[in-house]
Write a structure and sequence with these properties.
The chain is an alpha+beta fold and 276 residues long. It folds into two domains: 2-83 and 252-274, Immunoglobulin-like (Sandwich); 93-250, C8orf32 fold (Roll). Helix content is 17%, strand content 41%. The strands form three sheets. Strands 1, 2, 3, 4, 5, 9, 13 and 14 form an eight-stranded antiparallel β-sheet that branches. The protein starts with a strand and ends with a strand.
């Protein structure tokens, strides 16, 4: 599929601010199943942008605005071509403790945020008794949409797994974090993936979906295989990868700091338009 993507972020500060330093992770990645053909960023007030790859291979754009300003606009546009990934490998439980497995993905099997005991998680964890790691992933992607409601506003960016289990509602970030906890407790190396999603598989060219960034999970079984615990669907050509990491803290689309008024209004708009 061919997509045009727009990621628009606008800040309005209650007073003048200075020394506004920011790091962006918004550029679609280039992978074996995805190609970023065009990418442009417009920043207002104007700023010089530098680029580098972070530890996990994500392109990071950094910029600073030293002079006084009361608003910030970041307008990102991209064109991307995607294709479906190959069939996922089954993998085996015996391979999880092997030296080769640890060398390839061991850091993604470490406990998430040092949370060994989370009230209520045993009810979910105990049900993930499957013949292969792949079956565990597939069951997890059935379990989460069945037991939790997708409800924007039910949680916030700093919410914990406990918050999700108590409210039984959240968004894709919460569902991926829950997946990471459950998979890593089974010894499965798993990582957080952020990006964009066009929600309709049957969308005609020219159809635009307006929403927010999306997130899903990948696990290691000789190669990285992705599944989407929010929708329960396989990850395919409608998913556009931007960043990967251990959890959300490694992949935020925008992270920054500044001097000045502590109050601001922020709006984020994501548009994903199918071109072909």
């Amino acid at each position: 599929m061919h997509f045009a993507i727009r990621f628009l972020t606008e800040y309005h500060y209650d007073g003048p601010v200075t020394d506004n330093l920011n790091a962006l992770r918004v550029r679609p990645a280039t992978t074996s199943t995805q190609r970023c053909d065009e990418f442009h960023t417009r920043i207002e007030p104007e700023a010089r942008v530098s680029r580098h790859l972070d530890y996990f291979g994500t392109e990071v754009l950094e910029f600073g605005i030293p002079t006084s300003h009361d608003h910030l606009t970041i307008d990102v546009r991209a064109r991307v071509v995607t294709s479906d990934p190959p069939e996922p490998p089954e993998g085996s439980w015996d391979s999880l403790g092997s030296p080769a497995y640890v060398d390839a993905a061991g850091e993604f099997a470490l406990p998430w945020q040092d949370q060994p005991a989370i009230a209520g998680i045993d009810d979910l964890y105990g049900g993930l008794d499957c013949a292969t790691p792949l079956e565990t992933l597939q069951l997890l992607c059935e379990l989460i949409p069945d037991r939790f409601e997708y409800r924007p506003g039910a949680t916030y960016v700093g919410s914990t797994i406990t918050d999700l289990l108590e409210s039984r509602a959240g968004v894709c970030q919460d569902f991926v974090h829950l997946s990471l906890v459950l998979l890593r407790r089974r010894g499965i190396a798993a990582r957080y993936v952020s990006g964009y999603l066009h929600p309709s598989a049957s969308a005609e060219p020219g159809t635009t979906a307006i929403g927010q960034s999306h997130a899903w999970v990948e696990y290691w079984a000789g190669s990285w295989t992705a599944l989407d615990p929010t929708s329960g669907a396989d990850v395919g050509e409608r998913h556009v990868v931007v960043a990967r990491g251990r959890d959300y803290t490694d992949v935020p689309p925008l992270k920054g700091l500044y001097h000045g008024s502590p109050r601001s209004d922020m709006t984020v708009t994501v548009e994903v338009t199918r071109l072909a």
